[in-house]
């Protein structure tokens, strides 16, 4: 591997306040530590995603934590299993991305280049391009934290919606090893192992983990007579922890991860024209639909206690993603439209932190540097829908035809050439550098009242270059075949040739720079040792940038977008600490929103502009109850409302307002519940269910055509443990729920959710 360093919201607040008052009146005593369910009593949950270690009950941000114990109990093998079971969090296009509080990690309309939420694995940020093909397996993972709401103060440019923090198991000074073999009825198999222990007693420890998995997929291609979406993943990881006796207080952690994923293309469509397509999933594509992604990640973290209350740390992170994706866009057995994407993303970041833990003041101060080189190349043959309205307008304005004659000629021409076949290549490398200074802290004004404050100043430099080629790849209509309309056809052939040519030029490099100040201020009040409420106001941010308008071969800049976020949180514990009930309610104003604007020349004539304004509000509520040593249960509910207040699109021939339309991939309701029951001295049963309400899978005035119904997934696992072995059976989507994650009616294709999968496995623990 080679790295280069280069009102509507009022009822929400009133409801949570009423709940807080009820809890104060009926407040029982409780243990001060946070917990999750466990076979041997309570398990303390420590949240690290805000770059300091706090118990779950002391964390004001809305955070859902999935521990190693829950991963094992529920048989979770993929990060998206966690995502789909978390309140106000949802998958997008079946695993291409995710949304937090209705905000997609790639933007609410696809606009903008920077992500709105980021996945971090052992302190390394996963680029958007690797969310589908990057490290998602949950083998040997110690904890997953999903932080809902802006993390811009401590995380920066790619966390306006939130962040997902994945921590893998750390090396320890005790020898241990484990292995797993798992199979399912979808031709799936998974072999995993992990081991670690001391290299130098009480000073240097290591841990290694390997996960190798394969499944046949669920789609068959009759054109090639083979499975269309087999999935193969290989992930291996090595970690070192050094705590030298000669320098007490120093701790150094080194991590390296490699991930390979080979699968169907990220948008793997099936034909909905086939009878009973849920049970007969067919892809007729002639050209390949597949993706091959490799990601290497490395981090070095050094922490030193320079005084009893002071700690200084450094985190250096490197990553490289190489992705080759091939796709067929005519969805048929005829070779008409197809393409290939090559992406090479190299990232370097460095963060320095100084942390103070005093009696009344606790906080951190940090400096951050980020450098990303994003290589994007593509080659395709594309069928562009012939723009009838554009051709008619040109016949009137440029050729002097009357309206009726122009309409007839344009319709005849579109019938003769319904699509414009274009052979296209592009090379659009992008470089991003970010510099930031930030601080975040708490100050105890009184024993019960705490001031929360923080800020971040973020400065970014963004550079984009675009080189394109485009040529007509078909046959023009013959003008002489159309009699009196022959001159019009001659003119339209020329117009089409110019439309194609306009996509085939290069644009000079475009450099943009942006700065943003992001403050945070709040208060926490501890009513007694049982119950806390907090209120926080903070500013969220996504940087500006530039994007290529493919149809016009131009680079178009856009400005940063901002949010003001108002959030009320509640933390409570009951029944001697065996029950926790936590809630967060929020309201967000979003201005200068980066959205995709379509200009009307053809389907590829679009660009990002600051054309949107919106508001959002919602609530999350989560319960965990350790009823007995043998039984625990949990539940969560999320409600979010997301819609545009202002979104005006000027296509050149008409102006359309999308005000009042909803964000794509933003369900109003998400619900989840589950229980664990241990019985007969070795048996354990988990049953869990998650519900996602109906959702629009696209933006626009016609988004009702993209409305998807709600879905409920029920999963279960039954295991038996003896000595150092355990065996288990599991089932995902037990009821075989049939549901879509995207539907494109115009082409009779859709992306479907996975059907029922039943499997089992054997584990060994040393």
From TrEMBL:
Signal peptide: 1-31
Native source species: Rhizomicrobium palustre
Residue intervals of the TonB-dependent receptor-like beta-barrel domain: 254-734
Family according to the record: Belongs to the TonB-dependent receptor family.
Gene Ontology BP term (one): iron ion transport
Keywords: Cell outer membrane, Ion transport, Iron, Iron transport, Membrane, Receptor, Signal, TonB box, Transmembrane, Transmembrane beta strand, Transport
InterPro entries the record matches: Beta-barrel_TonB (IPR000531), Beta-barrel_TonB_sf (IPR036942), Plug_dom (IPR012910), TonB-dep_rcpt-like (IPR039426)
Main location: membrane
Cellular compartments annotated: Cell outer membrane
GO cellular component: cell outer membrane
Protein name: Outer membrane receptor protein involved in Fe transport
Domain (TonB-dependent receptor plug) ranges: 56-163
Topological category with respect to the lipid bilayer: Multi-pass membrane protein
């Amino acid at each position: 591997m080679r790295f280069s360093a280069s009102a509507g919201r009022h009822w929400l607040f009133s409801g949570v306040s009423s709940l807080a008052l009820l809890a104060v009146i009926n407040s029982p005593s409780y243990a001060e530590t946070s917990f999750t369910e466990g076979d041997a009593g309570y398990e303390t949950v420590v949240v690290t995603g805000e770059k300091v270690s706090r118990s779950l009950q002391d964390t004001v941000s809305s955070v859902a934590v999935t521990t190693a114990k829950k991963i094992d109990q529920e048989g979770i093998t993929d990060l998206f299993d966690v995502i789909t079971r978390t309140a106000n969090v949802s998958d997008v296009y079946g695993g291409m991305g995710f949304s937090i509080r209705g905000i997609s990690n790639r933007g609410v309309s696809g606009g903008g280049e920077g992500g709105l939420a980021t996945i971090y694995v052992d302190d390394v940020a996963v680029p958007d391009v690797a969310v589908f093909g990057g490290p998602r397996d949950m083998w040997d993972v110690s904890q997953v934290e999903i932080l809902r709401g802006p993390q811009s103060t401590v995380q920066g440019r790619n966390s306006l919606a939130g962040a997902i923090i994945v921590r893998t198991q750390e090396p320890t000074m005790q020898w241990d090893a484990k292995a797993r073999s798992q199979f399912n009825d979808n031709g799936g198999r998974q072999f995993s192992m992990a081991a670690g222990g001391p290299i130098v007693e009480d000073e240097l420890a290591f841990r290694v983990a390997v996960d190798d998995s394969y499944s046949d997929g669920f789609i068959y291609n009759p054109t090639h007579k083979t499975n269309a979406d087999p999935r193969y993943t290989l992930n291996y990881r090595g970690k070192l922890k050094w705590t030298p006796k000669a320098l007490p207080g120093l701790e150094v952690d080194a991590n390296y991860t490699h991930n390979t994923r080979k699968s169907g293309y990220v948008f793997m469509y099936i034909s909905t024209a086939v009878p009973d397509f849920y049970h007969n999933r067919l892809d007729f594509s002639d050209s390949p639909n597949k993706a091959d992604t490799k990601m290497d990640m490395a981090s070095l973290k050094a922490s030193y206690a320079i005084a009893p209350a002071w700690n200084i740390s450094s985190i250096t992170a490197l990553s490289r993603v190489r992705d080759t994706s091939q796709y067929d866009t005519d969805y048929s057995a005829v070779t008409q439209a197809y393409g290939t994407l090559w992406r090479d993303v190299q990232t370097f970041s460095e963060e320095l932190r100084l942390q103070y833990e005093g009696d009344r003041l606790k906080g951190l101060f940090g400096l951050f540097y980020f450098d990303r080189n994003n290589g994007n190349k593509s080659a395709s043959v594309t069928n562009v829908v012939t723009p009838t309205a554009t051709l008619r307008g040109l016949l009137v304005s440029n050729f002097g035809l009357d309206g009726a004659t122009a309409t007839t000629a344009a319709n005849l021409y579109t019938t003769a050439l319904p699509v414009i076949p274009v052979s296209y290549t592009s090379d659009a490398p992008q470089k991003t550098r970010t510099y930031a200074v930030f601080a975040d802290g708490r100050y105890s004004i009184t024993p019960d009242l705490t001031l929360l404050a923080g800020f971040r100043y973020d400065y970014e430099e963004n550079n984009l270059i675009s080189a394109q080629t485009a040529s007509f790849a078909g046959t023009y209509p013959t003008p002489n075949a159309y009699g009196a309309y022959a001159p019009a056809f001659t003119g339209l052939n020329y117009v089409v040739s110019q439309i194609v040519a306009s996509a085939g030029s290069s644009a000079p490099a475009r450099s943009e720079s942006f700065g943003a100040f992001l403050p945070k201020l709040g208060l926490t009040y501890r009513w007694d040792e049982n119950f806390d409420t907090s209120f926080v106001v903070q500013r969220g941010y996504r940087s500006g940038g530039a994007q290529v308008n493919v149809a016009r071969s131009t680079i178009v800049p856009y400005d940063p977008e901002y949010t003001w976020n108002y959030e009320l949180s509640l933390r409570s514990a009951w029944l001697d600490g065996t029950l926790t009930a936590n809630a967060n309610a929020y309201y967000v104003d979003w201005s200068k929103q980066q959205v995709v604007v379509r200009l009307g020349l053809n389907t590829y004539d679009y660009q990002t502009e600051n054309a949107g304004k919106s508001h959002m509000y919602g609530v999350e509520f989560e319960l965990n109850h350790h009823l007995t040593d043998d039984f625990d249960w949990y539940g969560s509910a999320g409600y979010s409302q997301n819609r545009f207040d202002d979104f005006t699109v000027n296509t050149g021939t008409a102006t359309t307002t999308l005000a009042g339309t909803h964000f794509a991939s933003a369900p109003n309701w998400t619900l989840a519940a589950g229980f664990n029951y241990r019985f007969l001295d070795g048996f354990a049963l988990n049953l869990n269910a998650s519900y996602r309400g109906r959702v629009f899978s696209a933006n626009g005035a016609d988004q009702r055509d993209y409305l998807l119904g709600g879905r409920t997934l029920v999963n279960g696992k039954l295991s038996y443990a003896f000595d150092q072995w355990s065996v288990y059976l599991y089932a995902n989507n037990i009821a075989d729920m049939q549901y879509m994650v995207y539907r494109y009616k115009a082409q009779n294709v859709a992306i479907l959710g996975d059907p029922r999968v039943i499997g089992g496995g054997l584990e060994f623990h040393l």
